[in-house]
Prior knowledge:
2 copies of one chain form a homodimer.
Chain A lengths: L7 H19 L6 H8 L3 H7 L3 H18 L9 H9 L6 H19 L1 H27 L8 H21 L6 H16 L28
Chain B binds a DNA duplex through helix 3.
Organism (chains A, B): Streptomyces hiroshimensis
Protein name (chains A, B): TetR family transcriptional regulator
Keywords (chains A, B): DNA-binding, Repressor, Transcription, Transcription regulation
Amino acid sequence: xxxxxxxxxxxxxxxxxxxxxxxxxxxxxxxxxxxxxxxxxxxxxxxxxxxxxxxxxxxxxxxxxxxxxxxxxxxxxxxxxxxxxxxxxxxxxxxxxxxxxxxxxxxxxxxxxxxxxxxxxxxxxxxxxxxxxxxxxxxxxxxxxxxxxxxxxxxxxxxxxxxxxxxxxxxxxxxxxxxxxxxxxxxxxxxxxxxxxxxxxxxxxxxxxxxxxxxxxxxxx
Amino acid sequence: xxxxxxxxxxxxxxxxxxxxxxxxxxxxxxxxxxxxxxxxxxxxxxxxxxxxxxxxxxxxxxxxxxxxxxxxxxxxxxxxxxxxxxxxxxxxxxxxxxxxxxxxxxxxxxxxxxxxxxxxxxxxxxxxxxxxxxxxxxxxxxxxxxxxxxxxxxxxxxxxxxxxxxxxxxxxxxxxxxxxxxxxxxxxxxxxxxxxxxxxxxxxxxxxxxxxxxxxxxxxx
DNA sequence: ACATAGTCATAACACTTGTTATGCGAATGG
DNA sequence: CCATTCGCATAACAAGTGTTATGACTATGT
Lengths: 221, 221
């Protein structure tokens, strides 16, 4: 009965890719049915035929994002610190596709922060990613490639570093070419790997509100 | 002639604060003239009286954001590493106001990435902030509180770390309370301060060893 | 007191948005 | 070969958007 045979799923994928392209170009603020339709060379009638409402459309687009992020070729690396490095490199916008994905990701933060449900989804996603990173950090510590310390804390720090680097690279790609991103990441990992001077494990800020003395190690004074 | 005397500027500030509140609550995606008007207990006629177009309104709101960021009480800290720490602490969402500001900031990334002009503004802003940070890092190095190394690179890394921590804290405030943010930052600074070996200790992957990701062109498309 | 000018509500405007209804064509099943 | 069903363009729809008059109100200057 259809004009072309079993293309229902394939057509849905086409639509999702058009959504992807619109998102990469104009972000969520510029995501409209008309924009997707023209990007696809069709009309809104086609879109509503496959997705009853815009909500379903963006949901499927976000599924595509997550699926792409999950199924993209991960870097292979031996256990320990190289695995940590590979996981972080996989986050950075080192290629055109990774740049698009990260750009969409950042764009989704606006709508996500406005909606508690979506906000929770993002938080959960980051927590999961952090969990994986923590395991990698732990094995690296067991191998003696990273100094002791709460792996959860180290993973959170590493993820923060990578996330911030993503944002900076998106806004100033000329100042943060792939090579520079890798350089920054490797410097960060090197500083992590170097044995840390002894500092009091208990945070001195627990008693006072916040903003206590300068960092742990006081060279002079 | 006016209903109340010299309140022109004061009224503009009122409007800007209403814009601020709407942005903090719903982000740029939820910023409409009606929303601002009801938030202010007025109508759109008032808004257009003080700001001819929405463009001017959001521009002024962003000016307010920048002005607030610039004029907020900065942490005082002696030169060297404490100054670096203070500058980074000033970025983090440690208070309710700082959280609002950062939430608006993140929200603006969506619209900024869609508009090259705004994108350039943001890039310039971050570059400037990075420049200041670099100077602080340099003096800390002169004081021997930080090991040698390109201060520009160190500043970029520190900014990335703070930025990413902001994002994480916004999405999972329960997992990243102020105390934890400070703890993470101090850990990061401690690892920076510790003298870095030449990457020999037990790290098989040299800094420029393998890199599956070819440094191809980045943005394009 | 009167004219004037700033303040702002009211309301209409042109436009875009997501959604829905209608209908035409094509491919298939009987 | 005809009826049916899917694919999709066309177009109308209501709601919401930014923008633009219009006019009433009020405090001020003279």
